[in-house]
Amino acid sequence: MKRALTIVMILVNLGVCFACSAKDQGTKFERAPKKVELNIFLGGMDRFRDQLDNYFIQFAEKERKEKNIVVSFNTEYPGNDNASQILKTRLATGDVPDIFNIHAMNDLPDYYKAGYLADLSDQPLAGKLLDGIKPLVTINNQVVAVPLESLEWGYLYNKKIFNELGITPPSTLTEMRTITQKLNDHQIKPFLLSYKESWIPQLFLSLTVGGLVHSSHSDFIDRMNKDQASFAEIKEMFDIIDLVNQNGTDRAFEVGNDDGAADFASGKAAMWVQGPWDADGIIKVNQGLEFGVAPLPINDDPRSTMINVAVSTSLAMPPDNKNKEIARDLLNYMLDDLASNELYQSLKFNPVSKKHTYKPYPWVEDASSYVNRGLSYKDLSMPSAVKDEVGKALQAYYLTKISKDDVIKALDRTWKEANAIANKNK
């Protein structure tokens, strides 16, 4: 009886212990979880939908495990051409997403002045940013966004075609003309044209004005902001635009970004005035394609032939976000020490964190070789309205519906209008 009683007492004690353990675990795991839906606006990022949606699921699993919070997502991926206007309308009407993407160089100052950006300086992510990247998402000593795309770009070129013809990336416009002629002589289209979406011809603005401002027209932006300059002063920007348009593929207005990536991957042209942000789409079509990134020559001054360095797509959150805690957790997770390595590598983006240890892709190293030689400049801050206008204007210019002077007048007018709005809001 004593032996039986002892066994019973042991079982009773074990039962008490198991019950206590279950009770403790229940405090963390068995109570009803808090449910949160994050509204995330990702304009122009549809080509990365799979990678980003999967990463958000990983984050949700982490929040469920560590905080007993069930996170769901309402994600929007509007196209590049109208994403900016959609977001501005949403913000103006009070329909503010929990997290949204903006262009670090073009949009941060305006969104910061309008009070739409939360200060993230005290978050772990701020201390992880590379020294060269952090200033690009910082205003008034406040980190206000998480950089996704850190870019070093100019134009893309097919290395196989270049190597077979003994061509190397040119450093002057005259050299580019020679290369263009050699490609034509071998029945190879020099440039891929994909003007269906206006943001693609708009890229000429950053490359041409950027190169000229950092070589021979250093005060152009400052004087434009004071209504004291005109694009007529840098009319030479059309020289490279004309060369590309006159030596490009057919049916330019039937080809958008995705089709352009597929055509370039298929070798339909030797060069494409486009950035490495399309690397994922290109490689999906032709995994074996070797392509490089080089600076676009705009005149015969090699000092103007430079790589554009920028942070474009960045993630931010509003300061009065009702889901502030969870949104902040997600922004920190975007630079998670381990998980973000795989994410950024899968997106084929440049490293932005001190914790990023993955090896950059060859085209990234191509662009970096120019940067390391001092042949680069920080992307210019120009009114977003001007960039919108130049894309549409260059589409019309390609179709010969308007002249160079018409483009110049449109850009001058749009910049002055942007100045008037900015001065009014001061």
UniProtKB/TrEMBL annotation:
Task performed by this protein: Part of a binding-protein-dependent transport system for a sugar.
Protein location: Cell envelope
Keywords: Signal, Transport
UniProt record similarity statement: Belongs to the bacterial solute-binding protein 1 family.
Annotated signal peptide: 1-19
Name of the protein described by the UniProt record: Probable sugar-binding periplasmic protein
Principal subcellular localisation of the protein: other
A GO CC term attached to the entry: cell envelope
Cross-referenced InterPro entries: Bact_solute-bd_prot1, SBP
Source superkingdom: Bacteria
